Automatic annotation (TrEMBL):
InterPro entries: M28_fam, Peptidase_M28. The keyword Iron does not apply. It comes from Flavobacterium kayseriense. Residues 1-21 form the signal peptide. This is M20/M25/M40 family metallo-hydrolase. Keywords: Signal. It comes from the Bacteria. The keyword NADP does not apply. Residues 114-324 form the Peptidase M28 domain.
Length: 450
């Protein structure tokens, strides 16, 4: 049925040589999933997380009602409820690990735990893994204060709530690849949970195709400047990959691909999917790994060679971030649910869903994408190989001028070679595979073929 609903758009794609990158028809199933995200459901999750008093990484692990241990147990219990509607494909666990005292934010050797739900893919030959995360731990002004109330509503109850909402909705559907939903801990103490997971993924050779980190996505009013904006969300992505080799650096400099790292392609993908599926929300691409001199849980994944980004609200409010609960000169401080914008959180959650479902249903990316440079011409010839696994319906060549940050035009082709009337001197290109329903793979930037 879904195929029949989409096929009518294909003549437009096939016979219009150039179409806008945003012009493809929406997948009705993704539209339906986006509509299932409810602001009041997200609010209920955030309020429940706040009810544990503090979720400090080093807080109580024995109590059933207060501290990080109780919060972890509750998140896992919710994952287990979702599993009942997943036909056995969703499983959950708390992945415990030990962190040695570091003389800074880990006072003594401590056991930490990431709460993980794994939605197993249906295609045994598709080894792709997609990860979406939020951090469960919270803090107040003193990062070593393990007992004071630290509600952590927005930081990062918002990211955990979004991740859980996706787990609930997406686990009712099937995907060829594997998706991991995770509430990491230890973020405020030094990204320990994310680092543990990233290093495990690398050691076990997971094919992590993309990692989406959500950290503070539920506030729309800035402190100080009092800017209010619930129509924009930031996506941060690294410029130069952490593990770039000397040869890769030479190639990057030769072809000027400084703005086209795999993580940057993921950020552009999220912008396209969000603005296609989520009304009244625009993605602001921020061309740095994270906020100025700051970091998040995507960073350890980038450092281990994986494609990773951070989603974050447009305007941070420092009155409600890393603050003791108090009132001073009529100003109420603290990270409480009353200061959040839950309809904004609904939209940022939908941005994650639109991106992740498109990625999970897409073909794998084309291989060995290249651009011919054997002769001087005002045309550009791109060649590539079909991806492994199920054959795609076709391919999209993405085009943008060298001064633009986002793809401007798309050319649809069926073959694995195309000559286009755009000069490689004036434009950048990338190629992605597309299935019959319009789900595109991550784009691949071409290398020169001599």
């Amino acid at each position: 049925m879904r195929l029949q609903k989409i096929l009518y758009l294909l003549p437009m794609v096939l016979f219009s040589p150039v179409i806008n990158a945003q012009a493809l028809q929406n997948d009705p199933e993704i539209n339906k999933m986006v509509s299932e995200i409810k602001a009041n459901s997200l609010e209920s999750t955030v309020v429940k997380l706040v009810s544990f008093g503090t979720r400090h990484t080093l807080s109580d692990t024995k109590s059933k009602t207060r501290g990080i241990g109780a919060a972890q147990a509750w998140v896992k219990s919710e994952f287990d409820k979702y599993a009942l509607e997943s036909n056995g494909r969703l499983t959950s666990k708390i992945d415990y690990f030990t962190i040695k005292a570091d003389g800074r934010r880990i006072a003594v050797d401590s056991q930490l735990g990431n709460v993980m739900a794994t939605l197993k893919g249906t295609d045994p030959s598709d080894d792709r893994v997609f990860i979406i995360s939020g951090h469960l731990d919270s803090r107040v002004t003193d990062v070593m204060n393990t007992t004071a109330d630290a509600p952590g509503a927005n930081d990062d109850g918002s990211g955990v709530a979004a991740m859980m909402e996706l787990a609930k909705i997406m686990s009712k559907r099937s995907y060829p690849c594997t998706i991991i939903f995770v509430a990491v801990t230890g973020e405020e103490q030094g990204l320990y949970g994310a680092r543990h997971l990233a290093e495990m993924a690398k050691a076990e050779k997971w094919n992590v195709a993309a990692m989406l980190n959500n950290d503070m996505i539920g506030n729309s009013l800035s402190s100080g400047t009092r800017l209010s904006n619930n129509t924009k969300v930031r996506v941060f992505s690294e410029t130069i990959p952490y593990l770039e080799t000397e040869e890769e650096a030479k190639m990057r400099k030769a072809i000027n691909s400084d703005n086209d790292s795999p993580s940057r392609q993921l950020a552009r993908y999220i912008k396209t999917a969000t603005e296609q599926y989520v009304p009244q929300l625009e993605v602001e691409l921020v061309y740095r790994n994270d906020r100025f001199l700051r970091g998040g849980d995507h960073t350890p994944f980038s450092q281990n060679g994986f494609t990773a980004i951070r989603m974050c609200e447009m305007n941070e409010n420092y009155d409600h971030q890393h603050q003791d609960l108090r009132t001073e000169k009529g100003v109420k401080y603290g990270d409480l649910p009353e200061f959040m914008d839950f309809d904004y959180l609904r939209k940022t959650t939908a941005a994650n869903l639109a991106s992740l479902t498109n990625l999970a249903w897409s073909p794998r990316s084309p291989k060995n994408v290249g651009i011919e440079v054997k002769e001087l011409t005002n045309f550009s010839t791109l060649v590539w190989e079909a991806p492994e696994g199920k054959a795609p319906f076709g391919y999209q060549i993405l085009i943008r001028s060298t001064a633009d940050s986002q793809w401007q035009k798309t050319i649809f082709v069926k073959e694995t070679k195309a000559e286009i009337a755009y000069s490689k001197d004036n434009f950048f290109f990338a190629v992605q595979a597309v299935d019959e329903l319009g789900h595109p793979s991550l784009a691949v930037f071409p290398k020169p073929i001599r």
